[in-house]
Amino acid sequence: MEPPEAAAPNASTRTGPPGFGALSLPGRLTVAFAAVVIVLAGVWHMGNIFFYVAPTNTVSDEYGDTIRDYISPEFSRNWKLFAPNPPRSNIHVEARAEFRRDDGTLDTTPWLDMTQQDMDDIEHNLLPSTTSQAQLRRVWTLYTDTHDDEGHAMTENGLLLESYLHRMALLRLGGEGGDIDIADIERVQVRAVTRSIQPPGWTGETVSTLPSYRELDWWTVRPSDYPDDVRDDMSDQEAS
Amino acid sequence: MSATADTESRLIRPWLELAASRAFGSYQSAIVRIGISLTFLCYLLREIPHRHELWGPDGPWGIDLAERAVANSDGFTVLLWSGSDLWFELAYALAVIASFCMVIGWRTRLMSVLFTVMVVSFQARNQYLIGGGENILRIMAIYLVLTRCAQVWSLDARRRARRGERSVDVTGIGLWVAAGAALVAATVAGHLDRLGWGGALWGLWAVQAVWWLVNRRENGEPRAVADMMANLAHNAVLLIMMAEVCFVYATAGWYKIQGSLWQEGVAVYYSMRLDYFSPWPEISEQLSDNSLMVLLMSYGTVIVQVAFPFTVLNRKVKNVLLGALILEHIGIGILLGLPFFSMAMIAADIVFLPTVFLLALDGRVRGLFRRIPPRRKEPADEPAGEKEPVPEGQPA
């Protein structure tokens, strides 16, 4: 590649500061030094990004921690929506509550299909909210990523996600317009109902679309799981 | 100077002089600024009714959980500096204001920093809401801090054209003092003790002071040197923004190529049958029942994504693929119900829009708003529209 015409472009026509050539030696050295720093920083930055997204290789084996430290969290990324494969099934996350009746007896609600609630919000909506489009979907995916098959959290974030998931369920079960008061809920349980998507008709394949269930253990609601106002009301009642 | 040094300087120096001479891609950086900040602004306005549930101190992702998660991820968020509702509402308002100021390009140097701090803060406050759209938004926001993205299409540019850059600027000094006071308060409270963010914010604040000092003397050498260094940073970061978009498509495309459903050309069928991604089930079913359509869309997606990074060297092919990517994202935004993801992706894509197109757009928009005076003059020797945005591309 031929270098561009030397600085001529602007020096002659531009009113204002002099061009590079007109600078004193210290001035030129400062600019040149800045250029070197910027180029090195840029190469370092792009190199880190490359090895962060590239498949595991000799460099990322050796310097994986350095790369992750540099990239996370500000430059972290994940471009794997529907890749390598889109999901072949629909997962509906459902929840039910064990609550105390006015007469003091315990009762259990039917399963509430929280995913169906989300779908009702999304349908025919040009601007669906994150609360219905992404929140439950992402939290459930991340929950399964951070837990083994017996439901034990494998990381601390897994434990935090358990709380998040059950608080979401608690809010929806005891939400406004519901049959039960959130303060009466003592335990909640979450399950996932997975149904395979029927393969396209032209492939001639069919799969069973019978649902499979993954049921989590009952979650005893802790005081910190209730919203502030509910918690305050509850402690007021206890005090009085 | 010795003979070798002389040869070296002849090879490198013209490039250095070119890169230091001006900030290239002024329209491209401006439209990315507008696109990215408009996306976040729309997102914040959309979620006003749900803001407490998503990020609030009283939401299901409460302060108690978020504090532990942020400690684990090493994230930065002003939203955890206080657990009060008032602080949260204040931060939300500040995020809306910063986004709006970025869109209109008012005090862009300060606002770009505030905008980035708010984007990062909201994302770190609830990291489990982060998806592809949020990632590109945050990454581009950080890059915008280091670009001269308000040279055109901004109130800053209009003010400069009217008053000249070096008249006494009371508002600017006031904002700088206010920013300094905020930094002092945050530092004293111990919120900026981590070198990365503390150093960056204090550093940017100090740079503003230096910039103001060197700009007090017209045509002085310090001013020229500072201007060149700003141009170098802008041009480098603009290149990085472009490379970043290429990385997005390269990785998205190459990950897909490895999937059997994309290989068989049926991936789009499954995507459209997902409950969370079918806001228009009637249309999705119609489209996904058409085998040829599904094959075309599946293969088309992979081909365009994998090919895009290789086409940036040829502007005609690049422009065709850019159009295809933007159309695809509009389709995804509507059909899969991901409007803000699509907006963010398009806002990043448009860094590759050709200058001719942007100038035509400029003319159109100016026709609509006659009151705004003409844009800042580009150097006269640069016939508008003949230059590619790439700072170190082939010579014109």
Write the layout of secondary structure elements.
The complex is a heterodimer of chains A (240) and B (396).
Chain A: H1 8-13, H2 25-53, H3 58-71, E1 89-100, E2 106-108, E3 112-113, H4 114-122, H5 130-145, H6 156-173, E4 185-196, E5 212-215, E6 219-220, H7 228-239
Antiparallel strand pairs in A: 1-2, 1-3, 1-4, 4-5, 4-6
Helix pairs in contact in A: 2-3, 4-5, 5-6
Chain B: H1 3-21, H2 26-46, H3 51-55, H4 63-73, H5 85-104, H6 108-125, H7 132-145, H8 155-163, H9 170-188, H10 195-214, H11 221-257, H12 260-264, H13 267-272, H14 281-288, H15 291-311, H16 315-335, H17 339-349, H18 355-368
Question: What are the defining features of this structure?
Answer:
heterodimer; A: 240 residues; alpha+beta; six-stranded antiparallel sheet; 6 strands; 15% strand; extended; disordered N terminus; B: 396 residues; mainly alpha; 18 helices; globular; disordered C terminus
How many structural domains in the coordinates of chain B? Answer: 2
Q: Specify the overall morphology of chain A.
A: extended
Counting helices, strands and paired strands, the structural category of chain B is mainly alpha
Enumerate how many helices of chain B there are, as a single number. Answer: 18
Order of helices and strands of chain B: HHHHHHHHHHHHHHHHHH
**Count of alpha and pi helical runs of chain A:** 7
Strand content of chain A: 5-15%
SSE order of chain A: HHHEEEHHHEEEH
Helix proportion of chain B: over 70%
DSSP helix fraction of chain A: 40-55%
What is the averaged pLDDT score of chain A? 89
CA(first)-CA(last) distance of chain A: 84 Å
Number of strands of chain B: 0
